[in-house]
Amino acid sequence: MTSTQHTAPSTTSPAGNPIGFGRMLRKEDARFLRGQGHYLDDLVVPGMLHAAILRSPVAHARIVSIDTSQAEAHPKVRAVITGATLESLNLAWMPTLSADVQAVLATDKVRFQGQEVAMVVAEDKYSARDALELIDVEYDDLPPVVDARKALDPDAPVIRDDVEGRTDNHIFDWEAGDKARADEVFAAADVVVTQEMLYPRVHPAPMETCGTIASMDRVTGRLTVWSTNQAPHAHRTIYALVAGIPEHNIQIISPDIGGGFGNKVGIYPGYVLAVVGSILTGKPVKWVEDRGENLMSTSFARDYHMKGEIAATRDGRILGVRVDVLADHGAFNGTAQPTKFPAGFFHIFTGSYDLEAAYCKVTGVYTNKAPGGVAYACSFRITEAVYLVERMVDLLADELGADPAELRLKNLLRPEQFPYVSKTGWEYDSGDYPRALKKAMEIAGYDELRREQREKRERGELMGIGISFFTEGVGAGPRKHMDILGLGMADGCELRLHPTGKAQLRLSVQTQGQGHETTFAQIVSHELGIPPEDIDVIHGDTSNTPFGLGTYGSRSTPVSGAAAAVAAQRVRDKARVITAAALECSTDDLEWEQGRWYVKGDPSQGKTIAEVSMLAHGTLELPEGVEGHLDASVVYDPPNLTYPFGAYICVVDVDSGTGQVTVRRFIAVDDCGPRVNPMIVEGQVHGGLADGVGMALMQVIAFDEDGNCVGGSFMDYLLPTSMECPSWETGETVTPSPHHPLGLKGIGESATVGSPPAVVNAVIDALEPYGVRHADMPLTPANVWMAMQGRPMRT
Ligand code: MCN
Ligand code: CUN
Questions:
Q1: Smallest-distance ligand from the CA of 27
Q2: Where in this chain does the record put each Aldehyde oxidase/xanthine dehydrogenase a/b hammerhead domain (predicted)?
Q3: Looking at ligand 1, which residue's alpha carbon is closest to its atom 32?
């Protein structure tokens, strides 16, 4: 069989999509735009019951008694579960992602407002909610620990007295860098600038709240769980370990997810309770939280009290950075990060600069607040690290009377220094930092903006220009260094070609809005020349996808994207062998062009991938050792993280009468290596920039002195809208990762990580005439106004 017709490689598919990388509309939009997505709360399982959770009204109290008799008497109630029920099943406590334990339902004490106290399972969700009011809980109030800075006071109440012998609220001490060397550098420096700052507690607040449906089949012993989660395979293993159900009898399905942003990484008590509810009633049980529950009880982010110090020469060479952090982890240490890193990747706080020494110390403490941590597009605490170093560089510029852009250009790592090993042990893979910053300055018209600012200052108008430069490390593993609860961070991927050349790609990662169904099809399309519309991307079902650690820390493209590329390359290599067999030539005689192997010097002799796939499934005699069919499966263990970076410039105007900040312009130059789909990358950047404006100007999950959460609704916890966001101005540079098979670096969190310091630096720059050196986020009108009056801010 030979092919006679030679078709030149096309760059667009029959549907008009790019073959390989390029802009294309998302494949998933066909269902989302028509309202045909299937989110958790859309799912109805036959016979399903509904659950609601009773939560603690107070931050810290001993539980004296729980009377459930009236709730149980409610005609539509099927079960009422309390801590005592769970204790009898040995399920009252579950492991957290940080090797702590968390109460599934409170047994002895409640430790934060909103903590789970009881669950009602009823025939409909209204009855379940009604019955909550029939449960009578007697609390004996205890003094709460609200301010992390007082958590280690000798007279502070001990929150975690569930652990025998615990006498304080200390969780961990952790350090990185070389303290002695840093101290030397600081002692010898001309200039040292010190600043305390708070990265306030914020919340990912996805549009869809968290929820689950658990169905335990009493006959087969099989547990099916539909849940909003970013890491279905890791969840399955954890359910198996916690509930003692054999792992092969558990199936976790993540339907369409309405935003995760880190909020859907962990397992919440409600998930375990739905499983228990299903075991007790023999029916499927659905539990979906409301907005207040989401904001008050699920994984918060940040809450880092940081004291930064930066040392430099008089002429502006940065020598070192030291940081002391007090980390508020709430009542249970449930932060999600690789096990070896209790402060996540915070020790990348040396940022994008060539330093002589660096040192940080992080102390984690318990407080009477919701557990969690890290979540919200954070790259495992790189958000806090970038904020710290970029604020410190601006403070240094202020001290030296230097231009903040010039100071950065003078100290940024130079392209020839890569791969660069940082003073806290990271190996940055590749970068051209000055190029990115110069490009951002060019788009902004930096010199012109400074001129405009001078003129405005003369007129008494407040305009500020803020810069931030960031480096992220994303794409965890390698598995030997990184794990979640002992599960190494590598990801599987399976690519299967059907006889007609259409393909299925099975992934362990889980899209929550990032467009994986499109971009992963494009990655395979890039390698095999198959139109992206002919590649079906399957994920979110543990029974139908290979094992892997899921989507967070912008790891999908760096890890599973690499796995998909390698799988496609293996298919391509196999196709070469089969083509050679079909054409009776040597593989060395064959050359690849988009989607096709052909004979060197005779392009009309060749086989497209679709033709090879038919041959591989057909009757052609395959060479010795070559199996039929055209499949590949890969487990990709990344050799290193990838290091995306970017330069951001924010321009603000501040109303001197009200303190209102208007973000007038925002320029973002990002480098994530080649862009699989530039449109999706820009969408990721736009979303992250909006997040950054939100955090910098309006968001905080705040608590009063009794530990009452005052950020539990969208009336108090504000989301930025198009009204608060400018028309984003984006640019790119492309520095491929040397170790990713396609050079790709992650992008999903870059803008959330990089933008808050740019906004804050701009506001502080605007307030220069008032002599304001620093003000903590959120820079609400009230907080800005108070900073202008030299008064302490409200927190
Ligand atoms: N991409 C690309 N070219 C690159 C890099 C990425 O085209 N060089 C594409 C990817 O293929 C993918 C998207 O951009 O479609 C994001 O890729 P990646 O950086 O790999 O990040 P993940 O897919 O792993 O997504 C996780 C990241 C995280 S951790 C948070 S938090 C966050 C974020 O993504 N949550 C999001 N972006 C989000 N976007 C939406 N809409 N919803 C969320 O919940
Ligand atoms: Cu930190 S939020 Mo994302 O890594 O899922």
A1: 1
A2: 34-143
A3: 261
